[in-house]
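Exercise 7 asks you to align residues with tokens for two separate proteins.
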Amino acid sequence: MFTMRFLVWMLMLLISCAPASLYQRQLSQLPKEQQPKYKILKYSIEAVGEKKEIEEFNHIPSTDSVALKQFEEIFWRKRDPNPLTPENERKIEFDRRLEYVLTNFSVNNYFVPWDDRGDVYLKLGQPAERDIESNGEMWTYLNLNLFGSPLAFKFAFDYLRGYKSVPVPSPLGNREPYGKTAEIQQYMITWVSQVQQKPMQYFYDYGKEELKYAFGLTPFLIRESPNIYDIYLTINAPAKKLITPSLDSIHYVWKVLVQDENYERLFTDSSEGLSYLGSREDLDKLMALDQKQLRLKAGTYIITSELVNSAGNKGGMLQSKLVLPPYKFPKEIEVSKAILAKEIRAADSTDFKFVRNDLVIKPWVSSVFTLGEPLWLYFEIYNLPLDREGQSHFKLTYYLQDLLTDKRYEILEKDLRQAQRDFAIVQSFTDSLFQTAKIPIKTGKDYVLLTEIKDDILGKKVQSLSAMFKFKKS
């Protein structure tokens, strides 16, 4: 026993004589009573953070308590699985795990606050099975699969580090690359940890049956207000998921939360949707479609959408990052995102949704189009140059692009000359138009509509790209 203690003492002496790492320097700059708190924060970030976040944290001076607190707040705000509630459920769960780790897996070590068991527990939580043996422990997670077998971890006692993780025999034997069990385990831990931290992608259980729906964002520029955007938010969902118990109407609540790039709340918008059903409505084919309009200045935003049925027992949350770059008029030719539409018509006094430039633009509710029915495309062009006569002159060329082969088929070409700089472009595509262009359309394949805009005054080209879609037989 004396020999083992002497060896441990000598090893610690060698470590203390080695060149100081960044972490050692950070730790040594703090008073002794503040060091445990910093160690816990550092290894908590390392346990569940991404590589970029860990590097960012390591470069914050340990003495800058304000910067460390701000980093920690943003770190957990971006992991909030339901930012529409005041609680951060992910942080609450992590704090519970952290308390357990500090109580059960702490080590008397200058550098680390807990052993390898603590890291695994923080990432994956309580194992389904925990077998304590004479020389270590075996943990098994029955809900996580590793090549057909439950994910398992073996920990062996180490005088210096407490319990350290050691390889568990692979279910596939020693064949490479599967023999590197430790690497595979680490990959599994990392993957599960990242999936748990990614908010709103339908894994978070907040007491409702999963409600899947589509959520889209389309930004448009505003000539009169530089650096301001009109944002059109659109949702579509299966009507049968939103039908009321009386079966006579569709009723839902749609909430949208807007946060800045640091996940600070800016504002929340909530609205109800209600529409009555006819006696012959086919619920299997009927889709609920809704839209909101926001006006945001240039910047980076986190947009969270929650859709819940009237009974409150079905819900779904989706989140998108929206980057709006600064712009000024006049500068260069710009083009908006293209909208695939089921219907485009002139708006009247009764229309207040899906209206843009005095047009009603009903977006397509799925990415599948039936051959034989018309397909509409809408996009906007800004700041085309004018010639000496005060007219713009440009050419529009429409292509259908096969995403599998990357082959591009020209559909249509148009020349335009008008006395204006900004344009709202509407174009319909029919089966006969594709046939005239001799395009071999195949059902089930992925396509996009691409528009090339060539300015004939300065010779500049820009492109507008639609979302991906498929064709099906009528």
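Second protein for Exercise 7:
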Amino acid sequence: MRKRLFGADGVRGIIDRYPLRREDAERLGRAVGKWLREQFLSPSFLIGTDTRESCHRLKAAFVEGLTRAGVRVVDAGILPTAAVSFLIASKGFFAGGAMVSASHNPIEENGIKIFSHRGTKIDDYTEEFLESLFFGDEPLPFEIRPATITTEPDYARQYAHALAREYRDYEWSACRIVVDCANGAAYWVGPLVMNLLNLPHTLMNVSPDGLNINRRAGSEFVRCTPEWLAARVRQRDADVGIALDGDADRLILVDRDGLIYDGDMTLAILALKLQRERRLSQDTVVITTMSNSALPRYLRRHGIHTRMVRNGDKYVTQMLLEANLTLGGEEVGHIILHTDDAHVTGDGLRTALAVLGELTRWPDATLRDLAPGMRKWPQVKASVWIGRRTDVPADKIPGLRELLHRTREAIPDLTRLECRPASTEPVYRIMLESYKTSIEVLAQHVCRLAQPIQRHFGCEGRPIEIWNCVAGGRIPPMDSP
């Protein structure tokens, strides 16, 4: 089996353990430097981070490798992932870039996302090439006199002003919001954008200390406890709560009633908006294999087609670029509004402004009015702790194949079943979706499917996290049917 370094979204892991030890990051930097030097005579490379305390040393090691390979590095400091992508694409002189972040994951984890000169995340072919350099015997470049490192603290401000210019024509005074910045990369850029637009807002979780990113904060916390944010929306007499993740590329919205609007719901809202404005290219939206089946059916009723790609926002972007499409995203909240060549990755802040702008055009409208009749089918997702990352497929786990077959027989209206190892976390993923079978019954079957997985990896008795993908919130583990 080929050695793997990259997961679903860059290199991920626990800091100071492989593949995120200092020597790993430095070698990756030299590999990236070699790749860049093969394409560009004198490459410049943009780098940003989120607010984790480990970002400083991980960035330092990665940059050491880049500069030793002869790559000039521009350090933009703390800013969202989408800002790194936007700045690479809009400025036009960077050979590539990277974001040091573990996104929505906890503080003990970190990662490195690598971007091409177009501002897109590197494709599978490039990842495989970098892995061949990283694991191979071929000497990597090492210059005695490293290339220069410069800082550009104003870059994040430039990104914020670009967002404000794009959305300046809305009547923002009519919209009141609560913003959860997850103590992450948007902790000051987000408020700056709101202030530039004179958008009435209340801030939460904008005091990072290096250790509190995503801790009882941000999109994944709100996904599990939507009422927590809804209560604060009501307390502030606001209309909507928006929650970003640690690097602000995901967005979850919550209304006053505690209803959650994830990526599927957001895609429905924005697809109708763009279609009405005649800006939805080919009347087509890109979705993934994890999208709720209600979404393509809903869009089809409105004359909108869908194209499905494998899970991962970089695959959404690839399809948007290949087919010259405008809108795509993932259920977890990555939304790509490809309105021009400078916007080619998930951007939580920009997505929020697009949705909120639609609210301002319809007096007294609520989020549910923006996609009338859109109702997700019953769906649950689970993370089964297995203690380590793995590539073991479901059909190699004793007893699991037969159990999956029996599950399909037991739920006659089952529309989706996913059972696979996660690429970035030490868990196994299970997703069940049906046309009408209840969430509770689906959760029971998930618990039964988790048993042979835990038994195979020696993790019996460990907790199973099950999420209600329709209403949000965690579901307590149940007795299997």
